[in-house]
Amino acid sequence: MAEGGGGARRRAPALLEAARARYESLHISDDVFGESGPDSGGNPFYSTSAASHSSSAASSDDERERPGPPPPPPGAPDAQEAEEDEAGAGWSATLRDRPPPRFEDTGGPTRKMPPSASAMDFFQLFVPDNVLKNMVVQTNMYAKKFQERFGSDGAWAEVTLTEMKAFLGYMISTSISHCESVLSIWSGGFYSNRSLALVMSQARFEKILKYFHVVAFRSTQTTHGLYKVQPFLDSLQNGFDSAFRPSQTQVLHEPLIDEDPVFIATCTERELRKRKKRKFSLWVRQCSSTGFIIQIYVHLKEGGGPDGLDALKNKPQLHSMVARSLCRNAAGKNYIIFTGPSITSLTLFEELEKQEIYCCGLLSPRKSDCTGLPPSMLSNPATPPARGQHRIKMKGNMSLICWYNKGPFRFLTNAYSPVQQGVIIKRKTGEIPCPLAVEAFAAHLSYICKYDDKYSKYFISHKPNKTWQQVFWFAISIAINNAYILYKMSDAYHVKRYSRAQFGERLVRELLGLEEASPAH
């Protein structure tokens, strides 16, 4: 018996190494922001924490709590009729192997940055001086128009490029200090910072904050609710596209942009009531090998346009629209996109496949659009199968997988062969066999969850009331995180190995003119 146990112990590392080899493209380590944390050591394609697979776990738990009707026993007339109906719709239990989508592009930064490149150099790949100069022009135009309408402001003087950089630096500093109010820098309290406070007076900062604009006036042809920030988002997207080529595998999801839990735990009820609920949702397409956010999509929760909620019948319809928007520039490249239950649907996946975009998504009978899927695969058997067992049906290149691990997990994919086997390794229970699509989904989603856990700590803490300003500061936060990822992939990282927090501090000081932007080494 001891010998058998030793054999199992020897097999587990071998399986682990084989699985790791399949995901060697996840080359930015678990310690993605240069800090050691509770989740920084261990297998990059599984997690023992409940949070990491919250959507997956919730999907399975929901199905256990509300089981579907048990399927008729094999051979029963109803079962035979259902099988015939599913076969008529093209679904079959006969599986065939298929090669993975071919991908020959080399992902990564498009530009080699010098070893002396500074934090500011990486940030300005996405927010260059011409964008900052436009902010200066628009802010001054808005201030002038505001004063023409509401009366002169004797304390106002036109803002300069140097002041605009300092203004951004002050705002970005809240992502490092996690301080709710940027004005705390001048307060003399716990969050005060004398070296930063000396660059600009609090009164001057507040004046710039009052008049700050990216687009001062609405165009007569503009109907979009985000017109005040859309030009900046478009410019940011161009910067992302030109600076980075993504890997084949990507994820569509909503990143963690919730309130800092420390603030929520310490603020008063009155402060909580004052804070307005966000009027938009932010979705991204993210490279699952590096964490680089390739594309941003902002959806306004209120609005009467063609993509407003009142024009959409249900959430799956909204999420399909979001997915189409995020994949607009991905056609013809054989990308593999991982999706959560709210996006996964047969109709969407077939539509994207025609554009040479392949998908692998978690499916929930309660949360997903299950139109066109075989009902026999969506109901749970009366007797739960053993862990690791699975059922698969195939239609063309599309496979519907029902895999059991403490409950049923369903996956829809046209990116992975249904006959290829994988493995998920758990610290406590050892290896669990599964189809390769399940292993791939767990690998890439686990990596993104770890990334989210890290980078969500570095969003700018300033919370304005205006929706366009909220979107703007979230976008700036994403740009800084992307800049740090490029920094970690460059020669500059080997000169000064900054953590994410140190990189942010360095960027703030360079924006405020307290450090040379490109120091000589």
UniProtKB/TrEMBL annotation:
Question: What name is this protein filed under?
Answer: PiggyBac transposable element derived 5
Which Pfam family name is an example for this entry? Answer: DDE_Tnp_1_7
What Gene Ontology terms for biological process does this UniProt record contain?
non-replicative DNA transposition
Its GO CC terms? nucleoplasm
Q: Please list where the region (Disordered) is annotated.
A: 30-114
Compositional bias ranges of the Basic and acidic residues kind: 95-105
Q: Where is the PiggyBac transposable element-derived protein domain?
A: 118-484
Biased composition annotated in UniProt, kind: Low complexity = 47-59
Q: Which InterPro entries match?
A: PGBD (IPR029526), PGBD5 (IPR042423)
Q: Which GO terms describe its molecular function?
A: transposase activity
